[in-house]
Design a protein that fits this description.
Layout: E1 13-17, H1 25-37, E2 42-46, E3 51-52, H2 54-57, E4 60-61, H3 64-70, E5 75-78, E6 81-82, H4 88-95, H5 98-106, H6 109-120, E7 143-150, H7 159-170, E8 174-177, H8 180-188, E9 194-195, H9 203-206, E10 218-222, H10 225-231, H11 233-242, E11 250-253, H12 265-278, E12 284-286, H13 292-300, E13 304-307, H14 310-318, E14 323-325, H15 329-338, H16 351-358, H17 361-366, H18 370-390, H19 397-427, H20 439-444, H21 449-471
Parallel strand pairs: 1-2, 1-5, 5-7, 6-7, 7-8, 8-9, 10-11, 10-13, 11-12, 13-14
Antiparallel strand pairs: 3-4
Helix pairs in contact: 7-19, 10-11, 11-12, 14-18, 19-21
């Protein structure tokens, strides 16, 4: 894996963290697009758990835990996605092979912890896609970036877990969120951040629309297996079959990801069979594209996009393709923030009306410049993030000292809260609380080793920064 080799010369080392150890369209695009903007850096792409992504990315993806524990990076960069509420167990179930998940479910609690540590390492993992730099002594003062993330899901967590996630976020140097709900959450807790369109809009800059001949007779439809179960596959099939405005078009069922909890070929086959049974003349089949940019090209060439995938809508916007989003909180929040003219919050009952609206000249006129505007804004935002993170401040002693001091404060607040929670449970008679089991609680029960490690790591980076300044 050439991307994980030590860089030549003074190229900054950047650890990119995201959900690209599994097949999910948007997450894979986050990685590929971020790499385009970090060509001056030596980039390592890693995830909470390892995965072989040769089929889709031409590489294997390592777990970030062992790498951050053993190697030093200049920056740890979360590449995007809905990372606010994802749990360790949820990430494991979506990422690891089914055999591992079954063995994990059948194991005793102590054995489960050992299994996690074998694939991720021993450092605490409060938020699987947002590594806490202070959990890794070698990288305790590395720059921390969260770019193009969604964090609104934090509000749905239990209060103790919300507090942990917010303290992890306080260690970040730069946070860019992609929707107003996430921005409002951070603002309410005094966490500095920026609000900007999703990074994937930059496709309009890096892969211009002229590359894509439009297939005026194709409509792409995407819906997850879970959502089909909730709606009822029969009800959704009925909506596609009875839509008079879809009648002139070929319907292609689009796979936005085949990882657990995403789309399903089997569900699509059942859906297509039901549509054909109701309307034998309806041309419906499964779209064959699987690699990330092939999927992008399919959307760019379509007449209309209909789906639950946020990045399906974003790619369609990038290329000026009319788009309809089915009802989903994350999608609704994003569309309200950046792309309100094209239909969203659509249900099977009003799908046909939404098709008419999305294809109408009036809506097309109102949204004509949306794709280019969002692409320019997203392009400027990531360029600024790269400059701020990997520019002169990378080795500025004052920046490193300030970062170390801020993280010590956040870490001590986290430690204090964990101690208080453990004591409260002990006072309530929970004997297990006397021997904390969570990684952070184990940290809280010890003297303050993390503060000393953080200071040591910070001093090392300050000295290295001073040497670089003298050499210049």
């Amino acid at each position: 894996m050439a991307r994980t080799e030590a860089p030549a010369g003074d190229r900054p080392r950047v650890m990119l963290v995201g959900a690209y150890e599994r097949d999910n369209f948007g997450d894979l695009l986050f990685l590929l697009q971020t790499e385009r903007y970090l060509r001056q850096a030596a980039v390592t792409a890693a995830a909470p758990f390892p995965g072989d992504m040769t089929r889709l990315l031409d590489r294997a993806i390592p777990a970030y835990g062992p790498l951050l524990a053993s190697e030093r990076y200049d920056a740890i960069w979360t590449v995007g996605g809905e990372v606010g509420s994802t749990s360790v167990l949820g990430a494991l179930r979506m990422s690891m092979p089914p055999g591992f998940v079954r063995a994990y479910d059948a194991a005793a609690p102590a054995d489960r912890q050992a299994m996690l540590e074998r694939v991720h390492g021993t450092a605490p993992m409060e938020s699987p896609y947002v590594p806490r730099p202070t959990a890794y002594p070698a990288n305790a003062t590395a720059a921390s970036v969260l770019h193009s993330v969604g964090l609104a899901g934090v509000t749905g967590l239990p209060p103790d877990e919300q507090a942990r996630r917010l303290e992890v976020l306080r260690e970040a140097d730069r946070i860019s969120v992609r929707d107003r709900l996430s921005s409002e959450l951070l603002a309410a807790h005094g966490i500095a951040h920026r609000l900007a369109p999703d990074l994937v809009h930059t496709l309009a800059v890096t892969r211009p629309v002229q590359r894509h001949p439009r297939e005026a007779d194709t409509v792409l439809v995407q819906i997850s297996a879970a959502h089909l179960r909730t709606l009822g596959v029969e009800a959704f099939a009925e909506a596609l079959a009875r839509s008079t405005r879809l009648a002139p078009y070929r319907i292609r069922l689009f796979l936005a990801g085949s990882a657990p909890g995403h789309d399903s070929v089997g569900s699509y086959e059942r859906l297509a069979d039901l549509v054909r049974a109701r309307r034998p003349d309806r041309d419906i089949a499964i779209s064959p594209e699987r690699r990330p940019y092939d999927r992008v090209d399919a959307i760019a060439a379509a007449r209309l996009w209909i789906g639950l995938s946020l990045h399906g809508r974003i790619v369609a916007a990038a290329y000026g393709v009319p788009r309809i989003s089915l009802a989903k909180r994350k999608l609704n929040a994003y569309a309200q923030t950046w792309d309100p003219d094209m239909p969203y919050g659509v249900t099977p009952e009003n799908l046909d009306d939404a098709v008419a609206e999305a294809l109408s000249p009036a809506v097309a006129a109102r949204s004509a410049d949306v794709g280019e505007d969002l692409a320019r804004t997203a392009d400027a935002e990531i360029r600024q993030a790269v400059t701020e993170t990997l520019g002169p401040s990378l080795s500025d002693p004052a920046v490193l000292v300030s970062r170390a001091a801020r993280r010590i404060t956040a870490l001590e607040a986290l430690r204090h809260d964990e101690v208080a929670r453990a004591r409260n449970r002990a006072a309530e008679g929970d004997g297990a609380a006397l021997v904390p089991q969570r990684p952070l609680e184990r940290l809280a029960a010890l003297p303050r080793p993390a503060t000393g490690r953080l200071l040591t790591s910070g001093l090392r980076r300050v000295r290295a920064g001073r040497r670089r300044h003298r050499q210049r």
